[in-house]
Amino acid sequence: SKKPVRVAVTGAAGQIGYALLFRIASGEMLGKDQPVILQLLEIPDEKAQNALKGVIMELEDCAFPLLAGIEAHSDPKTAFKDTDYALLVGSRPRGPGMERSELLAINGAIFTAQGKALNEVASRNVKVLVVGNPANTNAYIAMKSAPDLPAKNFTAMLRLDHNRAASQIAAKTGKAVAEIEKLAVWGNHSPTMYADYRFATIGGESVKAMINDETWNRETFLPTVGKRGAAIIAARGLSSAASAANAAIDHMRDWALGTNGKWVTMGIPSNGEYGIPKEVMFGYPVTCENGEYKIVEGLEIDAFSQECIKKTLDELLGEQDGVKHLI
Ligand code: NAI
Fold first, then answer.
1. pLDDT value of position 99
2. What pLDDT was estimated at residue 93?
3. Residue 258 annotated as binding?
4. Which residues are CB-contacts of 111 (< 8 A; sequence separation ≥ 6)?
5. Residues of the chain falling short of pLDDT 70
6. For strand 5-10 and strand 85-88, is the pairing parallel, antiparallel, or unpaired?
7. I need a labelling partner for 300 at 20 to 30 A (CA). Which of 32, 117, 145, 219 fits?
8. Quick one: angle between helices 242-257 and 159-173, nearest 10?
């Protein structure tokens, strides 16, 4: 049987953590033949550490055959030791009345410390996924704080936007979500992201031709996907958690095990593709094979798409500028 791999999860006692850990431990992320050791990180605060103990008791009570070990940590330097996968979920989302500069300062401190810890103690092949918002900029900070690790190992989660877009398209066309291929989401995980179905197909047929309604694209589809997070908060009183955890599982599983040619969306550091400046943590359509992602290149960018991509890029460059003193 396979040797266990180490999976670190931060914010492990939070909402997303609660929807995520049990699925990782059951083999949904890395395969039903891959044992895992969970290295869980929470803030040192007594309440958070107690909550983490409770989650660990429940993980134990599931008696998962693939769960080869569970550790609780309050310091990233021990939590990330030799870790093969790191899901950085814990962060400080924007609270009511919080200034942008304040948000960037708090998260800047968290993600520089975590990036440095990964740099020092993680496996040299660690695959890092940042979920905690602002996800792209947090991933950028962590990447820049880990100069000894390959930059390509740092990614941000755009998969929830991708899945939301797929679900809206399935509903609009009356087709099964599993049949949708070649969907892309460009840019920042924020309402400025650009969900793009111009290349998408269902059963080999063009989704754009099937929908044939540019007004729906611009006035219904894009705002619905962009504001979905806010709609869930308004309805549930809490931010999306199970769907976010599900997207994190999808992202890591596809990266580790491959997509079989299917396009998925990942936030990854640019190498200049599609005119995005180098190192910007940008949502791109990718395929994955042998543990590596590859950007889908050569897609035509029309005037409307260019405008949308510029808007989300400008926002990201602004965020990046706001944290440049940390880097
Ligand atoms: P939550 O508040 O329920 O849980 C967050 C947990 O992280 C808390 O238990 C907290 O103690 C912990 N934490 C905070 N700072 C930490 C640190 N430095 N080290 C370790 N743990 C730390 O929040 P929830 O709902 O689980 O969301 C987590 C993050 O994910 C938020 O930033 C949220 O905005 C973001 N999110 C991102 C999505 C995406 O698509 N990229 C989708 C949905 C949420």
1. 81
2. 72
3. no
4. 88, 91, 130, 138, 139, 141, 142, 145
5. none
6. parallel
7. 219
8. 100
Catalytic residues: 189
Interface pTM, i.e. ipTM: 0.98
Which residues does ligand 1 sit against, CB inside 6 Å? Answer: 10-11, 13-17, 41-43, 48, 89-91, 93, 110, 131-133, 135, 157, 160, 189, 239-241, 244
Show the tokens assigned to 267: 């936030």
Q: What is the pLDDT of residue 327?
A: 85
**Going edge to edge, which strands form the sheet with 292-295?**
67-73, 36-41, 5-10, 85-88, 127-130, 154-156, 264-269, 281-289, 292-295
The encoded tokens of residue 17 equal 């953590």
Has this prediction a pTM greater than 0.90? yes
- pLDDT at residue number 114: 98
Which residue owns the Cα nearest ligand 1 atom 30? 132
Question: CA torsion angle for 130, 154, 169, 242 (degrees, to 10)?
Answer: -30
Edge to edge, what strands does the sheet with 201-202 contain?
180-181, 201-202, 205-206
Helix and strand element counts for the chain (H, E): 12, 14
